[in-house]
């Protein structure tokens, strides 16, 4: 498994950051078919791979384990997540 691990700092407060993280997730859902659900401040990705977005008072962290089939897309997915987090969190 190839891993993506991105942490973005913010000063928005946890609730606003969670809303912004959800917007990021919604944008990448359509492109990569990501499915999952929120449990508190953690969005757990269940399909087509595994991972999570974790929101704290000062950070949003995205961790994704890429399956063999998705490894070829690692760079593209990583850049998409980075740019979307930057756009959402400043």
Please describe what this structure looks like.
- With 90 residues, the chain is α+β, with helices and mostly antiparallel strands.
- The protein has a single domain, classed as TATA-Binding Protein (2-Layer Sandwich), CATH 3.30.310.50.
- Helices cover 39% and strands 37% of the residues.
- It is built from two helices and five strands; from the N terminus they run E-H-E-E-E-E-H.
- The chain has a five-stranded antiparallel beta sheet, with helices on one face.
- A hairpin with a 2-residue loop joins strand 3 (42-47) and strand 4 (50-55).
- The longest helix has 19 residues, at 14-32.
- The protein is globular and about 35 Å long.
- The termini are far apart.
- The model has no long low-confidence stretch (mean pLDDT 92).
Mind telling me the C-alpha Rg? Answer: 12 Å
How many separate domains make up the residues?
1
Strand content: 35-45%
Name given to the CATH architecture: 2-Layer Sandwich
Task: Quote the distance from N terminus to C terminus.
Answer: 30 Å
Topology:
Layout: E1 2-9, H1 14-32, E2 35-39, E3 42-47, E4 50-55, E5 59-66, H2 74-89
Antiparallel strand pairs: 1-5, 2-3, 3-4, 4-5
Helix pairs in contact: 1-2
Can you give me a brief rundown of this structure?
This protein has helices at residues 14-32, 74-89, and strands at residues 2-9, 35-39, 42-47, 50-55, 59-66. With 90 residues, the chain is of the alpha+beta class.
List keywords for this structure.
about 90 residues, alpha+beta, TATA-Binding Protein, five-stranded antiparallel β-sheet, 2 helices
């Amino acid at each position: 498994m190839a891993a993506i691990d991105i942490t973005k700092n913010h000063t928005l407060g946890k609730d606003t950051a969670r809303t912004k993280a959800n917007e990021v997730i919604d944008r990448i859902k359509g492109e990569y078919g990501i499915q999952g659900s929120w449990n508190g401040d953690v969005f757990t990705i269940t399909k087509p791979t595994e991972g999570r977005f974790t929101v704290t008072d000062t950070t949003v962290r995205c961790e994704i384990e890429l399956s063999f089939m998705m490894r070829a897309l690692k760079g593209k997915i990583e850049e998409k997540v980075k740019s979307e987090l930057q756009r959402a969190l400043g």
